[in-house]
Design brief:
The termini are far apart. Helices cover about 30% and strands about 30% of the residues. It has helices spanning about 50-65, 95-100, 110-125; strands at about 10, 15-20, 25-30, 40-45, 75-80, 85-90. The protein has two domains: about 5-90, Phosphorylase Kinase, domain 1; about 95-128.
């Protein structure tokens, strides 16, 4: 998917704008067509083979049950035309990269809270 996807429907969501592009997936701001709520839609670059679809659904189901303050919640998932996608909470407050550009030296009082949040999320996921 690319910018040509803007305005298209994916599941119950209309793709509004591209939020980010990576080697693994594109992330779009989406709006639920009935509820008018916003979500982040992560569209994986891979096309799944029929035998992989159930594995994707199983993994998405596992991720969806990770409810923790420092883990973005998965709201929904599906595969449309062999393209897997996840619907996640939209976190509009930028990224750490945007807040602290590459090469920025951060004092420990700034980065230690981030490390604690990540450690807390990883411990929670590990315990599940």
């Amino acid at each position: 998917m690319a910018d040509s996807s803007i305005g298209q429907r994916l599941g119950n969501y209309r793709l509004i704008r591209l939020l980010g592009h990576g080697g693994f997936a594109d992330v779009y701001l989406g709006e639920h067509i009935y509820l008018k709520t916003q979500a982040a839609i992560k569209v994986l670059h891979t096309q799944l083979q029929p035998e992989d679809i159930e594995k994707f659904r199983s993994e998405a189901l596992t991720i969806a049950h990770l409810i923790q303050p420092h883990i973005i919640r998965v709201l929904d998932f599906d595969v449309e035309n062999a393209a897997p996608f996840l619907v996640m909470d939209y976190a509009p407050n930028d990224t750490l990269r945007h807040r602290h550009p590459r090469g920025t030296r951060l004092p420990s009082a700034v980065f230690l809270p981030y490390v604690k949040q990540v450690a807390s999320a990883l411990q929670y996921a590990h315990d599940q």
